[in-house]
Amino acid sequence: MSKILVLGGAGYIGSHTVYELMDEGFEVVIADNLETGHRCAVHPDAKLYVGDIRDRAFLDGIFKIEKIDAVVHFAAYSLVGESMTDPLKYYANNVGGTQVLLSSMVANRVPKVVFSSSAATYGEPERIPILESDPTEPTNTYGGTKLAMEQMFKWTSLAHGIKYTSLRYFNACGAHPSGHIGEDHNPETHLIPIVLQAANGTRADIKVFGTDYKTKDGTCVRDYVHVCDLAQAHVKALRYLLAGGENDVFNLGNGVGFSVNEVIKAAEEVVGHEIPTVISSRRAGDPAVLVASSDKAKTVLGWEPHYESIYTILETAWKWHRAHPNGFDEDR
Ligand code: UFG
User: Residues of 226-239 as b/e, b for ≥16 C-beta within 10 angstroms?
Assistant: First the structure.
């Protein structure tokens, strides 16, 4: 079985992907600097190297010891707001880190990589659902760095033959059905964890950012896709590359849009009581509607999301938040 290096394997989507890879029998090695990742999110049977992808010697050391067949690359900063106030921090880590990674992969002849990209590469879409061939005009630095990283894979592949897939996630959400791992960002900025924190009392309320969008109820519409479905897509993308698949870019979403108000209503049904909600002003840079076409991932990779219901997605997230009201802090 192939040996996979997961960079950022202690983070939200990374840790769920590690669980999925191990379930499918891959040998997994994790590298994470634990700046935003959590030691407790690391699968107990995976080997963890603590270090930074900007450290070339650190990466070279892992590749020399471990004989890695392919890399899954999650290691990046991902706060859209912070990326606008501190863009160079994002370029240094996301783009700079990927440059060091690719240099090390070239030098150590590691041939394949699955890359964690984002719907943020599209910016304000011209049409819905969004196709991979649609224009990419990011409206924030975070999306700009993800697009720059995609480009770096493309040109490096041409020069050195490394094969890659870029997976553009829409709104990752939910938690592992075991309840052992889930979403824990600091600060938390994402809708579903904030709604559930307002539900369990660790936060006063959920602020709805804008009710005057041209959408079904005036609030923003997003495509919520379960983190375990994303994890499955990484396994499929790896198998595709390991079987000789060509470079490609894939959207990953459920293809259904839910408004902020709809998510809050569904969450109220799942938790069984009202959730304190406050109407607030728009958040800068939020597109009104983002919904994916994932037909390409379905056709080429054979990916099929299993968590299509927003209720089931919220139930898994609620199981995690109820058991871990303070996130991974509880487990330390
Ligand atoms: N929202 C609120 N209140 C909150 C938090 C969010 O109303 O307290 C709204 C946002 O305005 C947005 C929706 O809920 O309309 C979803 O917001 P998230 O922050 O959960 O997610 P985003 O759609 O902003 O961002 C996600 C990923 C980013 C990625 C982006 C792509 O989290 O990493 O999609 O556009 F860049």
Answer: bbbbbbbbbbbbbb
Which of 142, 213, 224, 240 is the catalytic position? Answer: 142
149: nearest Cα among 136, 133, 131: 136
74 lines ligand 1 (CB under 6 A): no
pLDDT digits (tens, 9 = 90+) for 144-168: 999 999 999 999 999 999 999 999 9
Q: What is the DSSP string of 83-109?
A: HHH-HHHHIIIIIHHHHHHHHHHHHTT
Return the pLDDT at 285: 84
Q: What pLDDT score does 332 carry?
A: 44
Report which protein residue has its CA nearest ligand 1's atom 12. Answer: 220
Torsion 7-8-9-12 (CA) sign: negative
190 C-alpha to center of ligand 1: Å? Answer: 5
Amino acid at 260: V
User: Catalytic site residue 90?
Assistant: no
User: Which residue has a Cα nearest atom 34 of ligand 1?
Assistant: 171
Protein residue with its CA nearest to atom 19 in ligand 1: 190
Ligand 1 pocket check: which of 283, 313, 314 to mutate, most ligand atoms within 8 Å of Cβ?
283
Q: Is the CB of 194 under 6 A from ligand 1?
A: yes
Helices then strands, each counted (H, E), the chain: 11, 14
Helix extents (H) in the chain:
12-23, 56-66, 80-85, 87-90, 96-107, 141-160, 191-200, 227-242, 260-271, 295-296, 310-323
* Residues of the chain under the 70 pLDDT cut: 330-332
Question: What global pTM score does this model have?
Answer: 0.97
